[in-house]
Amino acid sequence: MENYTMEGRTYRYYGQEAPLYPFGYGLSYTTFHYRDLVLSPPVLPICANLSVSVVLENTGLWDSEEVVQLYLRWEQSSVPVPRWQLVAFRRVALLAGQENKLFFQVLAEQRAVWGQDWRLEPGTFTLFAGGQQPGQKTRAPSEVLSAQFSVTGTARPLGGC
């Protein structure tokens, strides 16, 4: 085998074709509302981590749990990358009517791309936060918020930070 790329071999690289049962698939007995997605800082140096916060509210009538998922999308890259990549998730239990502000860290190494080695590259990225993958079609309502951030500096090997 000479071609080690994952293009066309895993659902992350299939292009626009969605998987039948994506990560986080399932139904809930209540509804959730996401708001106030904040990325800090919105412009960060190439080796820095990104802080993320989002507010999750149980807007339904039942106590329930939600799997909050964060996905990262590269807006441009020097090598093929997934459409988006899961970078964090957390199962959160909320009473009916309760809300919770959640905090996450997206590490610099989670933005690394593989060429001949793992590299960090500058550019624009989109972060998605919600109860499902971006663009996922489900019968149960779920929201996915998005915000962009930029990485500045020169490309470097991951070990160079």
Automatic annotation (TrEMBL):
Per the record, the similarity remark reads: Belongs to the glycosyl hydrolase 3 family.
Protein's GO biological process = carbohydrate metabolic process
Question: What InterPro entries would the database entry show?
Answer: Cellulose_deg_GH3, Fn3-like, Glyco_hydro_3_C_sf, Ig-like_fold
Mention any Pfam family matching this sequence. Answer: Fn3-like
The record's keywords, sorted A to Z, are: Hydrolase
* EC nos: 3.2.1.21
Query: According to its UniProt record, which reaction does this protein catalyse?
Result: Hydrolysis of terminal, non-reducing beta-D-glucosyl residues with release of beta-D-glucose
* Gene Ontology molecular functions: beta-glucosidase activity
Domain spans labelled Fibronectin type III-like: 66-133
Keyword ATP-binding assigned: no
- Protein name as it appears in the record: beta-glucosidase
Instruction: Tell me the superkingdom of the source.
Output: Eukaryota
Whether Disulfide bond counts among this entry's keywords is no
Q: What class of enzyme is it?
A: hydrolase
